[in-house]
Structures are given as structure tokens and as C-alpha cells.
Amino acid sequence: MAAAELLFPKLAVFGATGRTGLLLVQQALAKGHSVAAVVRNLEKFQLKHENLEVVKGDVFDADSITPILEGKNAVVSCLGFQVGAKTLYSKSITSIITAAERSSIKRLVGLSGVIAQKDPIDPGWMEWLLRKLVRSRLNDLMVMENIVMNSNLCYTLVRLPFLTQGPLTDDYLVTNGQSVPRGAFSVSRADVAHFMLKSLQTNQWDNKAVRIATKK
């Protein structure tokens, strides 16, 4: 895709060193985006590309990341779980939104989880297992979603099920809210990255929190 066809050609990506974030950066560059990958440690990000800028920034410090966001069209957050970081999502999104608003950015795509809100069609064992494994993240994900939804940004939140290392298929289910057909409990990281970028090219998923899963 030519850069001129992209609605948001210049992206700032947080969580770029993670497995999903790296795939998103690679796909974004392939589509013609210019990408600023915001990382804590420059040495951990080895990808090179003429349209890629790797910048050190503290996601918890709006003053640190505001200059990075200047001139960008949209923010994509692929921040994932970190051991011991019980307020990672709420604190990081607060800084990101503050910096985005200072930089006149209006569009945000970010990751959340299926545990952020209860889905009545999920089997009881799935809810029990997810909440048992990630109890420390549950409240923070809910707080993060509320912060995003009450901001002035046009947002898309992607509620993740179990993530796999499968290939990009461009053949997955996306529904507004929580519910997807029974049995659809996983999705590949490559497909998640693909949808996050795809959501920037349409207003279909504006101001929505969606659930994504592989088709069964």
C-alpha cells in the first residue's frame, strides 16, 4: 500500500520490542507506514528500515514521550504483561493519552484482554482460568479501558484471548464488545497486529472495544 493511501501514515508504536509489537512494526513498514518505535532499551531492538526510527522513551513519563509523538498521526500501543507491574496499563495509557493530546494526535489503537469485561457466552472454566492466571492485571485493565473511553481520542481497543505464534491469515473474527462464536478462544499475534493496522484504515471500529479470535 502506498503511503499516500494510508489514513495515518506516521505511527508511534509502544511495546515494539514485544512479540506482538515487533510483528506490528514489521507489517506497518511493509504497508508503507513511517514508524517511531518507542523502547526502553535501544539495544534490544535490532530491526532496521529506512522508514523506522527507534527512540528511547519512558512510557510512564508524558514529558519523555511528548516530543516523540510530535508530527505523528496515530499511536499504537502493544504493551503487554510485565511481572510485578500491577498498574502498567493504567499508568502507561495515562501518559500516552496526555502526550498524544499535547501533540494533537486524535487516534489510538491499543491492546486489552478478554478478562477486562465478562462475556456471558464464555465457559465457566475459561473465566476461572483467566482470572486465576492474571488476577493482578484484571483491575488495571478495567481502569485502563475506562481511561481510554473517557478520553478525547478516537480509540480502538483489542481484547485479546490466548495468543499463539501462528502465521498471518487475515481470516479472523472481530466483534464489538466481548462475544465471538463458541470455541474461538485464541488468535495469532500476527493476526492481532494485522487487525490493529487494518482498524486504522476504516471508521468501522472507531470508539469500540472489540474481541478478536481465529475462525473455527
Write a short abstract of this structure.
With 216 residues, the protein is of the alpha/beta class. Helices cover 33% and strands 24% of the residues.
Characterization of this structure:
The chain has helices at 19-31, 62-69, 88-102, 124-133, 135-149, 189-198; strands spanning 10-14, 34-39, 52-56, 74-77, 107-113, 154-160, 162-164, 172-176, 186-188, 208-214. The chain has 216 residues and is an alpha/beta fold. It has a single domain, classed as Rossmann fold (3-Layer(aba) Sandwich). The strands form 2 sheets. Strands 3-2-1-4-5-6-10-8 form an 8-stranded mixed beta sheet, with helices on both faces. It has a two-stranded parallel sheet with strand order 7-9. The model has no long low-confidence stretch (mean pLDDT 88).
Number of strands: 10
Q: How much helicity do the residues have?
A: 25-40%
H/E topology pattern: EHEEHEHEHHEEEEHE
Largest sheet: 8 strands, mixed
Average of per-residue pLDDT values: 88
Quick one: CATH class? Alpha Beta
Domain count: 1
Please name the CATH architecture: 3-Layer(aba) Sandwich
> With helices defined by DSSP (H or I, 4 residues minimum), what is the helix count?
6
Shape label:
globular
Class by alpha and beta content: alpha/beta
| Spans of at least 5 consecutive residues with low confidence | none
Report the portion of residues in β strands. 15-25%
Could you state the CATH homologous superfamily? Answer: NAD(P)-binding Rossmann-like Domain
CATH topology: Rossmann fold
Computed over alpha carbons, the radius of gyration is 16 Å
Strand order of the largest sheet: 3-2-1-4-5-6-10-8
- Tell me the distance between the termini: 29 Å
